[in-house]
């Protein structure tokens, strides 16, 4: 359905053409995509290993982030085959935007003041909450206060790791590049819990391979407002916010949440979702 090999080549050709344009002085196009879809591609950073949010299986890209990104890209004038998906692990997101490796990021990317120093955010398009995942038979961990002396896994560069470092210094935190790596450590007993946003944990726990092995504790301790990461100084924020608002108003947002959390033991926080867009440039 999505990126096939020939499209990948087309995208590379488009990128080469853009480079030439940039050399010729057409600086504005160097970012790879302009509102209005001029026949070029748009490079969108997503996760590849978070089922239900951003997930790659061969040439198929699925999940809520992928659906919101596709909707927004369409509104900006890009058809589905003009989207070039790029893997954006948690620790690399700011750099990927700053180094012009992607045009936008939809990767469970929480809006924070610290990140806002180096990137711009549109949105938020979803609000999740940090939670804990434990082995199905473990009743000893009911919330962050029970983490004292426990081995805990989270991901480098995430708000999840940062928060437990600050608030639960008594936990032994192990950092991995992605949450799927943390689940391996949880299953083998190397760690006692995995922490990140509830929706990510629910998606990982619901895969066929993980059925019955883990449970989400269900005691959230943060608000994670998922923003659309944009390069600092981008002029796309307003257009992205309008697109998200349209997606919500049309009902496509709710459909996407429902479809992508089907089978997972998850219901979104209705007090916080769907969220209001924050003003751009603040
Ligand atoms: N939403 C959190 C963050 O942006 C955790 C999930 C992630 O690592 O993507 O850091």
UniProtKB/TrEMBL annotation:
Signal peptide: 1-22
Keywords assigned: Signal, Transport
PROSITE patterns: PROKAR_LIPOPROTEIN, SBP_BACTERIAL_3
UniProt domain Solute-binding protein family 3/N-terminal: residue ranges: 41-264
Coiled-coil spans in chain: none
Ionotropic glutamate receptor C-terminal domain span: 41-255
PANTHER family: ABC TRANSPORTER GLUTAMINE-BINDING PROTEIN GLNH, AMINO ACID ABC TRANSPORTER PERMEASE
Family: Belongs to the bacterial solute-binding protein 3 family.
Name of the protein described by the UniProt record: Glutamate ABC transporter substrate-binding protein
């Amino acid at each position: 359905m999505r990126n096939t090999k020939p499209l990948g080549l087309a995208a590379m050709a488009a990128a080469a053409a853009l480079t030439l344009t940039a050399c010729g002085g057409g600086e504005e196009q160097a970012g790879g995509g302009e509102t209005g879809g001029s026949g070029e591609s748009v490079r969108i950073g997503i996760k590849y290993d978070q089922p239900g949010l951003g997930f790659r299986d061969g040439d198929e890209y699925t999940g809520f982030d992928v659906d919101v990104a596709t909707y927004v890209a369409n509104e900006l004038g890009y058809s589905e085959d003009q989207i070039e998906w790029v893997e954006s692990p948690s620790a690399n997101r700011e750099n990927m935007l700053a180094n012009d490796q992607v045009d936008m990021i939809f990767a469970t990317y929480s809006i924070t003041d610290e990140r806002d120093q180096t990137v711009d955010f549109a949105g938020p398009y979803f609000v999740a909450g940090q939670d804990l995942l434990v082995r199905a038979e473990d009743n000893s961990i009911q919330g962050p206060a029970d983490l004292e002396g426990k081995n805990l896994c989270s991901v480098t560069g995430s708000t999840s790791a940062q928060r437990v470092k600050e608030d639960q210094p008594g936990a032994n935190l192990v950092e991995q590049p992605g949450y799927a790596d943390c689940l391996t450590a949880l299953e083998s007993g190397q760690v006692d819990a995995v922490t990140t946003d509830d929706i990510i944990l629910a998606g990982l726990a619901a895969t066929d391979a993980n059925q019955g092995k883990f449970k989400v504790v269900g005691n959230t301790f943060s608000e994670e407002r998922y923003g659309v990461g944009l390069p600092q100084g981008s002029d796309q924020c307003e257009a992205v916010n309008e697109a998200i608002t349209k997606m919500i108003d049309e009902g496509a947002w709710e459909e996407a949440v429902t479809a992508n959390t089907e089978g997972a033991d998850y219901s979104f926080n209705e007090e916080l979702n769907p969220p209001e867009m924050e003003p751009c440039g603040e």
